[in-house]
Design a protein that fits this description.
The structure holds 2 protein chains of 2 kinds. Chain A is mainly α. In chain A, 39% of the residues lie in helices and 3% in strands. Chain A contains 6 helices and 3 strands; from the N terminus they run αβαβααααβ. A two-stranded antiparallel ribbon of chain A has the order 2-3. The N and C termini of chain A lie far apart (60 Å). In chain B, β7 and β8 form a beta hairpin. At the A-B interface, β1 and α5 of A face β1, β2, α7 and β10 of B.
């Protein structure tokens, strides 16, 4: 009897060790939910990661983006993406906390240009029409913002391949204004 | 008809108006009108006040601040529509009632999402073996957990976002972007295990289902710890402004991790650099900085700014303390401006990552004094003293508004000054700080405002 129980102990230890290792990959217990196909798995991934894998086809230059900007973006963000949002339904942004332009603005502090594309795509124009811009319009608005900050040139083509490669000025900067002090 | 009958009929009529019913319908309430009567109307004809979803006494008037105006124009200040805050100075205990829970509405003044729970779907996908979507009903069939814990805005009390510098006169205005509720739902770890997380995955990318689809990345390690996919807030459905029908609750961490109107969880191998991930950087060791827990924080809610003591005598100093590390171990209170400190009593049970109420009986002698609280948590960390912070940024509120100042969530101690007439004032910027401006006058330290930006003091 004692010899049997001695064998059981190391066997149980070995099994529980295996369970720990495989804990994250265990078989489903509750069997709820509707499985997604690989295609659906990808189509739910509407956010743009820094590698830009999810960027759709389309392209635009800052020059093309400027036209869109004046038509749809300037009324809230100003023609230079720095000034107040007068005229929009949202009130103006204080001068020392610019949303977009300027040294401490969003465009200067973000590590990846893909974040800018992602924000414009999902949330702009603010309100009921959010997410309604076409891919080439988003590329255009992104390109125009990057051009205004001197990060790309007016005729540089921004597309799924070139956008992730854009070198943002404060990408490795530890003194980002978004650095949090708790 | 005698006066008694007339009075009763008037009461019923007024009651009917309050309940939104026509008096005509009321007269036929005894079984004749079709469909519109509730059971208690049928049982007790003439009794209009069903209290099916209770109301508070008409003498209770607590509200969030600011109150979002119905009509917003370009002249409406941003602060009025962005973060309605909890009136911490008026609440008791540790639970924030649902109607007073703070919230952030990044797309204000556009309407909040109106998600039909029957159409709701949550997707868990990305680097998992079995990606799937769940209905709300399926979520509610799974083993559930409940936890009382706080949520706090990533910018609460922050000087740069102005709620500490400009709207500093009450506890709620300055620090009210934090609330504590009982959240019930499914552990995210259960859902992730159900789907089978793949090797190499290390981050979670959560996305909301509102129009603007706000998203956030945080570490998989935290997702496998105590994150809850919550569908109930203090016993009932999550409120629309707090993320109905399903939201994430990430205990102990910054509020922007607790994604509202949760639409999907994507398992990934790196931060996805959503708008609120901008602070992430790769350190010298090649690892991402990521999110971390909030530091210990406390404040006295009574007596606090804007309140008034009626005279010398016994009062109960009371307040809240909380920390991302878990339990609050100790709260000390000073009533002499920091010279001496006394331990306050903690309300039991002290709950991990929940607001902790502290109390200290105190005899006010009627003299001017400064009171302040300071807490210590289970990790041994003590709350940052404001006097230490002032050594860096000085006593002038203007210097706090620079973009180098602690713009995000600020956890330093909160001193209140009690003057001899019993009124309580903000004392954050030194003992000689002047009282808040009277309504209609310009603030003492003018903001550097864009044209069209309305002076907040005009609206107090």
């Amino acid at each position: 009897m004692r010899s049997t129980s001695n064998l059981l102990v190391p066997a149980i230890t070995l099994l529980s060790g295996l369970f720990c290792v495989a804990a994250l990959a265990q078989m489903p217990t509750y069997k709820v939910g509707k499985p997604l196909s690989d295609e659906e798995n990808r189509s739910w991934a509407t956010g743009i990661g820094p590698e830009g894998k999810e960027l759709p086809p389309g392209s635009a230059t800052a020059k093309e983006g400027k036209e869109l900007w004046m038509r749809r973006c300037a009324k809230c963000h100003g023609v230079d993406a720095k000034s107040s949002m007068a005229g929009s339904i949202r009130p103006p942004t204080p001068d020392n906390n610019p949303v977009l332009g300027g040294e401490k603005g969003l465009i200067q502090s973000t590590k990846y240009a893909t974040t800018i594309w992602d924000i414009i795509n999902r949330a702009m124009p603010l309100g009921e029409e959010a997410g309604s811009l076409k891919a080439e319009e988003v590329y255009g608005a992104t390109a125009y913002l990057l051009y205004l900050q001197g990060i790309i040139k007016e005729n540089d083509i921004m597309d799924a391949k070139s956008l992730p490669k854009v070198q943002m000025p404060h990408a490795n900067d530890d003194m980002s204004p978004y650095k949090r002090r708790f | 008809m005698n006066s008694k009958g007339r009075g009763r009929r008037r009461f019923i009529k007024e009651g009917a108006t309050l309940a939104g019913l026509a008096v005509g319908a009321l007269r036929t309430a005894s079984g004749q009108s079709a469909g519109s009567e509730t059971p208690s109307e049928a049982q007790t004809p003439g009794f209009t006040d069903t209290r099916a979803y209770g109301e508070r006494s008409r003498f209770e008037t607590l509200s969030r601040w600011p109150i979002v105006p119905k009509v917003v124009t370009p002249a409406t200040p941003l602060y009025l529509i962005f973060t309605p805050r909890t009136p911490l100075q008026d609440l008791k205990g540790i639970i924030t009632p649902n109607p007073l829970h703070y919230y952030i509405d990044a797309a204000a003044p556009y309407p909040l999402p109106d998600i039909d729970p029957r159409q709701y779907r949550l997707a868990i996908h990305g680097m998992v073996d079995r990606p799937l979507t769940l209905t709300l009903e399926e979520l509610q069939r799974l083993p559930s957990v409940s936890r009382i814990c706080w949520l706090e805005c990533t910018g609460n009390s922050g000087a740069r976002v102005r709620n500490f510098v400009e709207f500093r006169d009450t506890a709620g205005k300055a620090h009210g972007a934090t609330s504590c509720a009982e959240w019930t739902g499914v552990l995210l770890s259960l859902l992730l295990k159900e789907c089978g997380v793949q090797k190499g995955a290390s981050w979670i990318y959560a996305e909301g289902g509102e129009r603007a689809r706000r998203a956030k990345s945080f570490q998989l390690e935290k997702a496998m710890d105590d994150v809850i996919v919550a569908y109930a807030q203090n016993g009932e459905g999550v409120r629309p402004e707090n993320g109905y029908p399903v939201r994430l609750v990430v205990p102990g961490w910054a509020g922007h991790n607790s994604v509202k109107w949760l639409r999907r969880i994507q398992v990934v191998d790196r931060p996805y650099m959503a708008k609120d991930d901008l602070g992430f950087r790769v350190g010298p060791d090649g690892k991402w900085s990521g999110e971390r827990e909030f530091d210990p924080k406390s404040l006295i809610t009574f007596p606090s700014g804007g309140q008034r003591l009626s005279g010398p005598g016994l009062y109960e100093i009371s307040g809240l303390a909380w920390t991302g590390a878990g339990l609050i171990r100790r709260v000390e209170v000073t009533t002499d401006g920091g010279r001496t400190w006394k331990d306050a009593q903690l309300q039991e049970p002290v709950l991990s990552k929940a607001h902790t109420r502290f109390r200290l009986p105190w005899n006010w002698d009627g003299e001017e004094c400064v009171i302040e609280s300071r807490c210590t948590d289970e990790a041994g960390r003590t709350q940052m003293l404001l006097s230490e912070v002032r050594k860096t940024w000085g006593d002038n509120p203007d210097s706090w508004k620079s973009s180098e100042s602690p713009g995000e969530r600020f956890s330093a101690t909160q001193p209140w000054k009690i003057t001899r007439d019993g009124s309580v004032r903000q004392a954050a910027f030194g003992p000689d700080m002047s009282p808040p401006p009277a309504p209609g006058t310009r603030a003492a330290s003018p903001l550097n405002l864009s044209p069209g930006w309305k002076d907040p003091s005009c609206l107090s």
